[in-house]
Structures are given as structure tokens and as C-alpha cells.
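Record type: ASSEMBLY
Status: queued
Input:
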Amino acid sequence: MKTAADVFTIVAMLGGLFFFVAGTLGLLRFPDTYTRLHALTKADNLGLGMVVVGLLPQAGHLVVALKLIVVWLLVMLTSSDVSQLIARAARRQEKES
Amino acid sequence: MNVPQLFGLTAAALVGLGVYGLIVNPQPLRKVLAFNLTGNGVFLACAVIAHRGAAAGMSGDPVPQALLITAIVVSFAASALAVGLMLRRFAQTGTNSLAAPDEAAPGEACTHAEAP
Amino acid sequence: MISAISVGIGILLLALALWTVVVRDTFAAVAGFIPYGLLLTLAWLVLRAVDVALTEAAIGAGLTGALLIRAASRLHPAEAAAQAEAPGPATRVAAGVAATAVAAVIAVCLLRLPDPAPTLAPEVARHIPATGVGNPITAVLLSFRAIDTLLEAIVLLFGVVGVWSLAPDRCWGGRPGLAQAVGPNDILVYLARVLPPIGVVIGIYIFWAGADHPGGKFQGATVIAAMWLLVMMSGLRDAPPVSRRWLRVVLVLGPAVFIALGLLGALTAGAFLAYPDGWAKLWIIVIEAALLPSLAVTLVLLMVGPPQRPEVGP
Amino acid sequence: MADVLIADVLIAVCALVLLMVAVGLLSVLRGPTRADRMMAAQLFGTGGIAALLLVGTASGVDSVVDVALTLAVLAAFASVAFVKADRQSEGDTANEEGT
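Status: finished
Output:
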């Protein structure tokens, strides 16, 4: 059982790392603010999600596991809203210049 | 090199960077930032001392850790007051410079009389 | 392994600190300061100071970042003039020498700390059962060194008085901050409707957990304060005028209860802030519960700044 | 011994996530626009929380989840302050179309 959980953790971590690498590649390669914002908020959120999923079997208590999921949901809520806000701020600055 | 020594060196470097920034950067907001860096360096030194004091089943000496919590909150209050002063001065005079008033803001009233 | 990650955190911390010091543009410096605060949270965690990490996450990464970003945006028009005042190379070299000297002295001191390290942890462990709380930091903050916490609460109050004293005469007693006008369909309004209920629950949870686990009034109050500020920034609710009586009562409630119970301790237990036997936990809970709203309101008022709009009409 | 192995894996993943965040920061902080720079906070909001959870779980600190919860609630706060201050300094809240 323990080994299966650990294998699951490692696989999920690799998935999470993949998304973090993809997000950073996007930040480096994409040409403008909007596409970079897209890479950042989408890929990194998935990366965090995979990390959280991978940590679930390692959480000692059910409460800890539930809190881990709440963390991910909260980050998804705030970062999707903030990415919209930042994109609008960027467009406003673009209009002026 | 162990973890306390490593963060001890980081703390010292943070204090140094803060002192440098405090002297070199002319903008008041930058000075607040630099002062926060210095403060964080001191906090980090304090946390290193707390970490080394781990005993009696505790992960660190709780007394310096409690002081750190107090310090972080108070340094926020100090930054807020400094920012308040800055914004008020900017709203009043339109300047955000720390240079002597006669070179930075010619419109400002000087307390001393004109040179004879 | 943990020391490997410490090296990474240390280098990144210094790189961001260097960025905030040397970059030309103030806004860029502040933008670097926010991840720096988040990274410090990681550093506290690696140093096993979880309570401090929680405080840093709330104040260093949350409130301070917002405070500085707002200031940098407002002061942006004065940026060019201020940059022109940068000191010459002679000053820079002198500052570099001075800073290096200070850093070197501190580094030597920190590398030559006495071994074994002096510690008060056994003392705390011996006396903690008398307080009834399980988290040693809470025991230190509210029992062994309660006078520090009391003075801190009063210092914060003086901070608010200081910020208020910056108000122009005609605005005295009015509402702090600028008027917020946001369209009803704005995404910010959505966030300000969804997040605060969750945030307030988390704030109260962290406050409550502080008795036995990392947490406490400062961290909880900061989260609650941030939620209130979010509602204000979205324009859903305006900031309260500073002349309101309820506001002032809440502001002084925590320190007042703290002092009152301290004096009561002088009568019943023989010393200011001493707790009578068996009552320590109850008194600590009463003090913390009174401090929580006071601290939250204090932090909000420090963030929003002095009154800027007169009570009636603009 | 599986726990030790997993702890090492978590720390290694944490190091790589931090590396990715650092590289991302390098690119974001350079700008050119202020919105680009504001992404630094966002980047650390997700990557930083992941690193925090990984280090905390690896060193067996259960309450790290509470720290992560606090960060998750507050990480967006600075960005919101930026957007608000930006709007106010332009003073054009009126022509903001709501979608």
C-alpha cells in the first residue's frame, strides 16, 4: 500500500514539474504580456494542482488533505481573477502609450 | 556549512545590502525598502539564533521567535507610517525628494531670509 | 537535502534583495520586493519557525506588498525627478565600503555564536503547563513576555494616531482613502464577494489554532484585515469615517482589556499581568479575543492611510 | 525507509520548482511593462506555495498547510492593490467595460 502511494506521489510530482517547466518556458518564449500571463496562470496552476494531488497520500490526517485541496481551489480562484485584472491593466497601459 | 551558518551569512549580506540602499537610493520609498531589507536581515539573524536554541523537544527557542512575530508586525506599522508621510508630502508639495528645499522645490517657503 | 534547498533559498533571497536595491525604477524594485517576502516565508519554514512563517506570509507577503505597490504607483509622477538626484560614484563607493564593513562584522559575529547555544526553551517547557496553552510561542507572547505584546498593541495604536495626524484639517473625521468607483460587473467585485467569507473563516481558524498550533491573533487579524480591505478596494463598501465611535471603541478594546486584566492580576496574583492560578488559559483567551478585532481594525486603518474626504460632500 | 526516500524526492521537486520560479522571475521582473512586473507576485503565489508545501511536508511540519492557506488567501492582495492604484492614477474607472 505504502509503495503504491509513494509511486503515485512521484508520478504526480513529475506531472507537476512538467507544468511548471512549461509555464516558465512560456514566460521566456511568449512575445507579449497577454500570452505570458496565459502561460503563467494556466500552467502554473496545473503544476500546483499536480503537486497538491501528489502530496495527498503523504498527508497524515484527512483534515490536512482537505486543507491541501482548499489551498489549490483558493489559488485557482484568486489567480484566475487576478490574471484578468492584470490583463486589463496591461491593456489600459497599452492604450495610453 | 550547515543551515544556521548559511542563513547567518545571508542575514549579514541582507543588512549590508539594506545599508547600501539606504545611502545610495535617493527616493524615500526606496529607503523604506532598504530599511526593510536591513530589518529582515536582523530578523533572519534572530531566527538563526532561535534555530540554534532548539531544545526540550521544541524546534527552536520560542522566545526569540515570539519577539520576531512582534517585530514583523511593528515593522509593518513603521512602513505604513513612513508611506503615509510620503504620500501626504507628495499631495501637499508635489515633490517626493529629500534634497534641501531650496534646490528641490523652489515654490516652498524657506524659513531663513534671502542671502544678503 | 534540506541544506541544499537552503542554499537555493539564500541565493534567491539575496538576488531579489540586490534587485530591489540596484534597479533604477522604483516600481520594479517594489515588484521584486513582493516575491522576496514570499521567499522569506520559505526561509522561516526551513529554520523551523512556523509561527514566524505564518506571520510573514500574512504581513510580509500580503499587506506590506500591497502598501508599497500602492505607494509606488501614486509616487510614479515624481520618479524622474527623484532619479536625477542619484549620488555620484564617490558616495556609492563610500556606501559600498560602509555596507561591506557592517555586513562583515555581523557575519563574523553570527559565525562565531557560542556553542552550545544559549536557549530558553527548557525554561519555557518547564513552565508552559501553568499557562494551559500548547503552543510555546503563544505562551511566550501572552504569558511570559505579555508586557511586550501589550506594548506592541499600544505601538500599533500610536501608528494609527500618527497616520491620522497626517490628515488635512478640513478632512478630519472623514473617510480615509480615495473614493472607489467600480462597475457592478467588474471581476474585482466578484472576487470581493467570494473571497472574504472564506478568508474570514480562515482568519478565525488561524486565530483559534494559535492556542496549540502555529497561529494566533496577529496572523488571524491580518487575514481578516486583508479581506475587509479587499471589500473596500472593490468599492462594495466604503471605508468608515474615522470619527465613528464604534471604530474608536474597537481600536482601543484590545489594549484596554489587556491593561485591565493586567491590573486585575496585580490585585489578585501580586504582579501586573500575572495570572491567578488555574485561570491563565481563560485570561489568555479573553485577551486574545479582545485583541483580534482591535488588531484587524488597526491594520486596516494603517493600510488605508489618513482621512482624505470630509464627512459631508466632497 | 520509504519515508526518507519520499522526503528526498519532495525536496528535489521543490528545488526544481524554485529553479523554474527563479528563471520565470528573471524574465518577468525585466518588464517591460508594469503589468509584466506585477506577474512576479503571481508567479510566486503559485510556485511559492508549491515549494512551501513540498518543503513543509518533507520536513514533517503539518501546520505548513495553514501557512499555505494564508498565502493562498493573501497572495492576490498585492496584485489587486496594484490594479486599483493603477486605475486611480489614471482616473478612468468610468470607461471600464464590465464583462
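Annotation: The CA atoms of residues 6 and 57 of chain A lie 8 Å apart.
Annotation: Helices of chain A lie at 2-29, 33-55, 62-96.
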